[in-house]
Amino acid sequence: MADDRTHPFRGYNFQVEIDGLSQISFRECSGLTFDAEPVEYREGSDKHLHVRKYHGLRKFANIQLKRGISTDVKLYDLFYEVLNGTAKRRNGAIILTDELQAPQLRWTFFNAYVSKFEGPTLNATSNDIAVEMIELCVERVELVAPAPSVLA
To answer: Which of 18, 27, 32, 34 has its CA 20 to 30 A from that of 110?
Structure first.
């Protein structure tokens, strides 16, 4: 009997694209959180004694990207642009792939800049990989499904 169920994707199969950067891999991506704040409204002549709720401003959380630190300082350079007041806004995408690394879902973000850089936590009693983190402040995120191929 054929299995007609839709199976969920694994969280470890993803790619990150950021305009102007290439060959950067990340171990963790978080912050794909979106909100539409409710706006409550009631007129004095309303017969029902409750408020109406409308959707208000949409907000997109900052995207956090973590990777093992090395001599490649591309992520810090992005934050250094912010420190110098010369930061360029960049577009990019978080791409969820299947087991064969074929793109399946794509969250495209717009007008991002690095709002936070966090260096590694160093501990002489541990053998963990030293990890750095950047936080991208984004204006908008859109989900595209299925994802267009990044290799095409």
So the answer is: 27
> What φ, ψ does residue 78 adopt, rounded to 5°?
-65, -40
Q: Which two tokens stand for residue 20?
A: 């102007």
Alpha carbon 26 to chain centroid distance?
Answer: 12
Q: Are 24 and 18 in contact (CB under 8 A)?
A: yes
Give a yes or no: residue 6 inside a domain.
no
Reported as a pLDDT band with limits 50, 70 and 90, residue 61 is very high
Give the contacts of 42 (CB within 8 A, at least 6 positions apart): 50, 51, 52
Q: Is residue 33 part of a domain?
A: yes
Conformation bin of residue 99: beta by default, left when phi > 0, alpha when psi is -120 to 50: alpha
Handedness of CA 6, 12, 13, 18 (dihedral sign): positive
**Residue 103: which domain range?**
14-39+51-144
Does 149 fall in a domain?
no
Distance of CA 47 to the CA centre of its chain: 44
Asked whether the predicted pLDDT for residue 69 surpasses 70, the reply is yes
